[in-house]
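User: Can you recover a sequence for this backbone? Please restate the input before giving your answer.

Assistant: Of course. Working from this structure:
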């Protein structure tokens, strides 16, 4: 027997196997349909192609062509993404999900998430298939079911399938636990009464080492805090120590390529944990006191020369300002915002100005130390930063600094952009209304800088 013939036969067998595993490989009608649609030069031509394809798919559905079901579903999803109605193919999703093989289930669940939403009555028909797949021995099929449930779960489905999701949160497989925790977020959001079922499980997941499981558990804890006051109190008592440990570990961890972003270890987990800490520490002095040290460590050790570091610092400042933090920690947070004001990135400066406006009510004296930098922002080229900085300067004005601050504003009025002069003049006049003794003083300084209708002072 010729060895070349054996080689050819093997190639053909491998190709046939690949086609069975991947029904959307080159040469199938899905690609032909996409090429035909992209080749259309007018909207009318595109509509004609879509009508023709939809008619062919309807005929295949009526004829119960099982061999082409997966291909037709892929084509329907593409047509749906173009904005055309595809409701006639919803039942095909359910048939594919009910199939035994993973490739069919994968395309069926994808179609389910794209073509249906929680308001569709057809969705209730898939509950039984979801329950079977959540109990499947194949972890990948379980993952498909969890992903679909987490995206389109209705209140009725949440009540029916919550026990299966709870069981999967105890799985040995990290990916299954991660997906089950994220699915639980949707369940708690749809049925807040089920929050108590997940409190203990969420707290136990915070002891995991896998970052994917941790970030999902933190997200679930955050949703539980929003859904139930009982859950909030439970997590305050049982989770704060674990959160501090997670934040300390991830802050002090060595380089790990899997989680590293611009030299910072898993900034996404950093930010999620800080947000949850803010919820737990708000209005609770004991929790706030427990997290003071780790917040100070994050605020001082995180580098600010990368966007990932700035994102962590921003969230850390928000957390410090949101909890019952010590005065020293708040001063540290406000000083970080002062550094943000000197950053070249306009977005960073804008968010810093926003937080400083809230910080005035907490520690006005610490904000006053940065008024020179804030005044420079009033003269910035960016209109949004100018306006926000002007609002902040207005809040900073008091009896002791009113003269130098107002003089700076009036001096800038002479050279300000015409579009900005109206806002600037209105703020100066508002300051003068609050402190009447300044009125004549301002007129003497202002010269011809004020509009005609302001001279009522």
């Amino acid at each position: 027997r010729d060895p070349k013939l054996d080689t050819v036969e093997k190639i053909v067998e491998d190709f046939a196997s690949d086609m069975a595993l991947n029904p959307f490989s080159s040469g199938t009608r899905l690609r032909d349909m996409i090429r035909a649609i992209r080749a259309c030069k007018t909207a009318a031509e595109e509509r004609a192609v879509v009508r023709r394809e939809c008619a062919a798919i309807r005929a295949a559905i009526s004829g119960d062509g099982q061999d082409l079901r997966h291909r037709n579903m892929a084509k329907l999803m593409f047509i749906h993404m173009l904005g055309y109605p595809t409701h006639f193919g919803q039942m095909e999703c359910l048939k594919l999900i009910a199939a035994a093989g993973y490739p069919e289930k994968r395309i069926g669940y994808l179609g389910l998430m794209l073509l249906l939403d929680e308001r569709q009555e057809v969705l209730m028909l898939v509950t039984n298939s979801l329950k079977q797949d959540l109990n499947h021995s194949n972890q990948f099929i379980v993952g498909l079911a969890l992903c679909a449930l987490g995206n389109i779960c209705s209140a009725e489905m949440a009540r029916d399938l919550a026990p299966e999701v709870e069981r999967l949160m105890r799985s040995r497989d990290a990916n299954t636990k991660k997906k089950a925790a994220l699915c639980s977020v949707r369940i708690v959001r749809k049925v807040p009464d089920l929050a108590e079922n997940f409190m203990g499980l969420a707290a136990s997941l915070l002891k995991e080492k896998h970052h994917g499981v941790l970030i999902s558990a933190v997200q679930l804890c955050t949703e539980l805090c929003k859904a139930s006051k009982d859950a909030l109190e439970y997590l305050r008592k049982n989770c704060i120590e674990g959160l501090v440990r997670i934040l300390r570990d991830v802050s002090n961890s060595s380089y790990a390529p899997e989680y590293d972003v611009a030299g910072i270890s898993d900034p996404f987990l950093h930010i999620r944990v800080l947000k949850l800490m803010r919820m737990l520490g708000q209005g609770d002095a004991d929790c706030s006191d427990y997290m003071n040290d780790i917040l100070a460590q994050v605020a001082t050790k995180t580098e600010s020369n990368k966007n990932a570091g700035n994102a962590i610092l921003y969230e850390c400042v928000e957390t410090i300002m949101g909890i019952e933090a010590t005065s020293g920690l708040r001063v540290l947070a406000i000083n970080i915002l002062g550094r943000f004001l000197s950053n070249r990135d306009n977005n960073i400066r804008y968010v810093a100005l926003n937080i400083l406006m809230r910080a005035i009510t907490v520690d006005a004296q610490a904000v006053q130390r940065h008024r020179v930098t804030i005044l420079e922002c009033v003269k910035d080229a960016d209109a949004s930063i100018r306006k926000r900085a002007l609002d902040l300067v207005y809040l900073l004005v008091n009896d002791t600094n009113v003269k130098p601050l107002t003089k700076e504003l009036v001096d800038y009025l002479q050279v300000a952009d015409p579009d900005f002069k109206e806002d600037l003049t209105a703020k100066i006049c508002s300051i003068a209304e609050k402190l009447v003794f300044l009125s004549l003083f301002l007129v003497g300084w202002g010269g011809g800088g004020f509009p005609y209708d302001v001279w009522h002072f």
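That completes the design. The two ends are 108 Å apart (CA to CA).
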